[in-house]
Design a protein that fits this description.
Layout (H helix, E strand, L loop, with lengths): L6 H7 L1 E4 L5 H19 L16 H6 L13 H7 L2 H10 L4 E11 L7 E4 L13 E6 L10 E3 L28 E2 L7 E5 L4 E3 L8 E9 L18 E3 L16
Antiparallel strand pairs: 1-7, 2-9, 2-10, 3-8, 4-7, 4-9, 5-6, 5-8
Bound molecules: 2-oxoglutaric acid.
2-oxoglutaric acid binds next to strand 8 and strand 9.
Length: about 260
């Protein structure tokens, strides 16, 4: 299976939807793994909703919303390690980032039916700023997603504005950047939406009777160094393509809590 990559579109617009990166069998295996992570967490103190809080929705509505949002899923289930280094993924990543590609982190973002949380418009930059802005997200769809179940929306070309002020380094002023400003990116299970960490993006509440399960990987050029060692994890720096030219000069400073 080979995928079609329009790097010029990505460079101009800051995002690219690539169809059919994963087969229905691979998607089914990952859905099962997502369910296992949720079930395992349910038996621990880590089981809480990760729905974003703020002033972008009325408090009564926010209270009802749920996001199963666990980080570092590739340390829990090997199927995600295979996915993040899948030949179709690296085929796209090397076109968009360059020959050397390094994983930054992984997470799952599961919006349950009827009450799946929203993400107000934001850039990912403030969470893990880097010098050269090579960082991008690859959001892998495990369900068909559309506006009803809270698909991602992006503002095309917004990456060219550079870093913008976020409310408490969290999200953009929602009056200036309502979700309706975005271009919805409906996708099918197995498709991956790639977007730069400066591209403004967000997603609405899942009001449908279907789940919206996405798993997101962030990647960078290893020579694009972080401005500070925020958002690091113990195994950060897995190479998925090419070589790491700065291994001796830089390694994330991770301390066990
Ligand atoms: O999956 C989504 O709908 C949005 C996720 C997102 O924006 C993020 O994790 O930064």
């Amino acid at each position: 299976m080979s995928v079609k990559v329009d790097a010029q579109f990505y460079n101009e617009n800051g995002y690219l939807l690539v169809k059919g990166v994963f087969s229905p069998e691979e998607v089914a295996e990952m859905r099962e793994a997502v369910e296992r992570v949720i079930q395992k967490a349910a038996a621990t103190k880590y089981d809480r909703s990760h729905a974003w809080q703020g002033d972008f929705l009325p408090p009564e509505e926010l209270k009802k919303l749920v996001l199963k949002g666990f980080h570092d899923v590739h340390y829990h289930e090997a199927v995600f390690t295979r996915a993040l280094s899948h030949p179709n993924m690296t085929a796209v990543l090397t076109e968009l980032i360059g020959p050397n590609v390094q994983l930054h982190h992984s997470k799952m973002l599961v919006k349950p039916p009827e009450r799946g949380a929203a993400f107000p418009m934001h850039q990912d930059y403030p969470y893990f700023p880097h010098a050269r802005h090579s960082m991008l997200a690859a959001s892998m769809h495990l369900d068909d997603s559309d506006l009803e179940n809270g698909c991602l929306s992006v503002i095309p070309g917004s990456h060219k504005q550079g870093p913008l002020p976020h409310v408490g380094a969290h999200y953009l002023n929602h009056k200036e950047y309502p979700l309706s400003l975005g271009t919805p990116c409906p996708a099918q299970a197995g498709d991956v939406l790639f977007f730069n960490y400066l591209t403004i993006h967000g997603s609405d509440v899942n009001r449908s009777e279907r789940p919206r399960r996405n798993v997101l990987f962030q990647y960078r050029d290893p020579a694009d160094l972080p401005i500070n060692d925020e958002h690091v994890n113990w195994g950060q720096g897995l190479m998925v393509a090419g070589e790491n030219p700065v291994f001796k000069e830089y390694r994330a400073d991770y301390k066990l809590a």
